[in-house]
Amino acid sequence: GRGPSRGPAMDLFGDLRRMNKRQLYYQVLNFAMIVSSALMIWKGLIVVTGSESPIVVVLSGSMEPAFHRGDLLFLTNFHDDPIRAGEIVVFKVEGRDIPIVHRVIKIHEKENGNIKFLTKGDNNEVDDRGLYKEGQNWLEKKDVVGRARGFLPYVGMVTIIMNDYPKFKYALLAVMGACVLLKRES
Amino acid sequence: LRKNVEDFTGPRERSDLGFVTFDITADILNGKKCIFDWNVKQLFLYLSAEYSTKNNALNQVVLWDKIMLRGDNPRLFLKDMQSKYFFFDDGNGLKGNRNVTLTLSWNVVPNAGILPLVTGSGHVSVPFPDTYETRKSY
């Protein structure tokens, strides 16, 4: 009769041992190609939009009810696009890495194009002066990551979960890696 | 779209502070249709003052804003509103400035998709007086 039936874990290892080196290298190259293509698309987006970070996730509730934590924003940062009151901009405070998504409520622009502006979150009582660097009262063009042009709700939640629960991120990467390495070419 | 305003400036050390009281009568439409279609989650309305000064070629200050959710009445009928935010100029460019224009604009926030900024038709020019107001308390 047959021996004890093998569980799915044993089958996995059986597969791995059966694959010869050449197949393994092939799968790894396949995986590398997918990763490279993704990176190329991202770099391409950076070039096309002019923004160093063309897609950002909303991290706080300071723009509710328009945007909630986990929403995805699509940005452009064209050099000739003027900054005007009412626009939603994503900016970084000098020295900090976290992008903030708020609305422009005041601008003062000189004839030569130099502009200084003030921002405020829709859901905040006060303007952002408290968020800026010590002694900084205005933002300038160089602080802008981009202007929000479009948005998708909820989709960015995945990044937030991966950030808050790193174990989830590793688990996801492990599953993805296993899928790619073990995918059989028919 | 009609606005009536009353205004004066108060002296401050370095920058003029403007005070504006206004009425707004407005009907927010998208062409001829209602602005709130299936993909409009809310509107962010704001009243901004735009003007030029010696110091700066272009200044825009948001004086008042309001969030209008889908389901709210797209008609505005507000009287004797005070500006929500301090109308500071960067300098002393409000005194005697005849060309301060108030415009009502709105940001359409969709359920998903593009975020357009629309400026309403109709704007009002607000000339500021040549002297500072010292009698009114503020």
UniProtKB/TrEMBL annotation, chain A:
Belongs to the peptidase S26B family. The lineage of its organism: Eukaryota, Metazoa, Chordata, Craniata, Vertebrata. InterPro entries: LexA/Signal_pep-like_sf, Pept_S26A_signal_pept_1_CS, Pept_S26A_signal_pept_1_Ser-AS, Peptidase_S24_S26A/B/C, Peptidase_S26, Peptidase_S26B. Keywords: Endoplasmic reticulum, Hydrolase, Membrane, Protease, Signal-anchor, Transmembrane, Transmembrane helix. It comes from the Eukaryota. This is Signal peptidase complex catalytic subunit SEC11. NCBIfam families: sigpep_I_arch. Component of the signal peptidase complex paralog C (SPC-C) composed of a catalytic subunit SEC11C and three accessory subunits SPCS1, SPCS2 and SPCS3. Within the complex, interacts with SPCS2 and SPCS3. The complex induces a local thinning of the ER membrane which is used to measure the length of the signal peptide (SP) h-region of protein substrates. This ensures the selectivity of the complex towards h-regions shorter than 18-20 amino acids. It catalyses: Cleavage of hydrophobic, N-terminal signal or leader sequences from secreted and periplasmic proteins. It is an enzyme of class 3 (hydrolase). The chain crosses the membrane at residues 24-42. It is found in: Endoplasmic reticulum membrane. GO terms for molecular function: serine-type endopeptidase activity; signal peptidase activity. GO terms for cellular component: signal peptidase complex. GO terms for biological process: signal peptide processing. Its EC number is 3.4.21.89. Catalytic component of the signal peptidase complex (SPC) which catalyzes the cleavage of N-terminal signal sequences from nascent proteins as they are translocated into the lumen of the endoplasmic reticulum. Specifically cleaves N-terminal signal peptides that contain a hydrophobic alpha-helix (h-region) shorter than 18-20 amino acids. It holds the Pfam family Peptidase_S24. Residues 46-133 form the Peptidase S24/S26A/S26B/S26C domain. It is a single-pass type II membrane protein.
Automatic annotation (TrEMBL), chain B:
It is a single-pass type II membrane protein. It comes from the Eukaryota. GO terms for biological process: protein targeting to ER; signal peptide processing. Signal peptide: none annotated. InterPro entries: SPC3. GO terms for cellular component: signal peptidase complex. Keywords: Endoplasmic reticulum, Membrane, Signal-anchor, Transmembrane, Transmembrane helix. Belongs to the SPCS3 family. Essential component of the signal peptidase complex (SPC) which catalyzes the cleavage of N-terminal signal sequences from nascent proteins as they are translocated into the lumen of the endoplasmic reticulum. Essential for the SPC catalytic activity, possibly by stabilizing and positioning the active center of the complex close to the lumenal surface. This is Signal peptidase complex subunit 3. It comes from Nyctibius grandis (Great potoo). The lineage of its organism: Eukaryota, Metazoa, Chordata, Craniata, Vertebrata. The gene is Spc22.
